[in-house]
Write a structure and sequence with these properties.
Elements (H helix, E strand, L loop, with lengths): L1 H12 L1 H17 L10 E3 L2 E8 L3 E8 L4 E5 L4 H11 L2 E6 L5 H4 L2 H7 L4 E4 L10 E2 L5 E4 L2 E7 L8 E5 L9 E5 L2 E2 L2 E2 L7 H12 L6 E4 L4 H11 L4 H15 L7 E2 H7 L8 H7 L9 H21 L1
Parallel strand pairs: 4-5, 5-6, 6-7, 11-14
Antiparallel strand pairs: 1-2, 2-3, 3-4, 8-9, 9-10, 10-11, 12-13, 14-15
Helix pairs in contact: 1-2, 6-11, 7-8
Amino acid sequence: TSSHFYVYTLYTKTRLGYMYYKRQMRKARENYPGGHSATDPVEFNGVKIIPISVLSDNYSYLIIDRASSIAVVVDPADPQIVQAVLEAEGVMLEAILCTHKHWDHSGGNKGLKRLHSSCRVYGNAADNIPGLTHPLSHNDSVTVGRMRFKALFTPGHTVGHMIYLLDGQTVGAPSSLFSGDLVFLSGCGRMFEGSATTMLSSLDTVGSLTDDTLLWPGHEYAEDNLLFAAEVEPHNTARENKYQWVLQQRGQKLCTCPSTIGEEKQYNPFLRSHSAELHLALGVQQFQEEDWTQFRARVLEELRKRKDLYNRR
């Protein structure tokens, strides 16, 4: 809707958006002094991933190479909270991996860079990322200590959205995907700056990863997303089982990350544009002359429209 886009423009392109983010940050620190969700670190052979609960439903991620006590942070929205975790862990921040320009993902870049002068800030140049020092393109890699990340260009939510794949092979573990606002547990980001075709191609990038890849999204949206998924694939038992688990977690204010790509392919409707049950539920049929990818983009568009309406009620 045009009014929605107007609000979006104010948020991303004006000082007002920044003021709003600062207020959001202050309120979240008051309302959730211990964070909105309790999180548990995961460690594989000396590489430690710590989800950090920031703002009212965002996650930043600190990834540490224990052997050298150096770290990378993904989307440090609240620099003060991220800094506290860095100090508690006793590690040096070497790099910020930023998925996209929105303040709730990039707002802490400059503050952390002031505290860690040699810290590099990575992201795509098409997005106006605060403090960017190292612009990245599709398939570029970033190495910090023993950690090797591959940057994947996934526009749609914003024109320069990127996701980061931590290679697990170097430490004998599954890989980890830090997906920003492209993919959530059973959801995907709004298509603010891209067509359904663009977004589909970005989602297919995620769908092509190995099933054991761990998914670390930018927001805690699991409960709402699974409720919506029930409307469009009511008979999906994988979704029902995951929903019961999520209810248990959220009942205790526990984090629902990580999920896996294999699991997501079973119940995340945005990764299931090929599903016949979904086509039926959405009342979308393939035209005779329409190619499969065009049709799936139309399915995705309809799905996202429904989700936008669903979120408003």
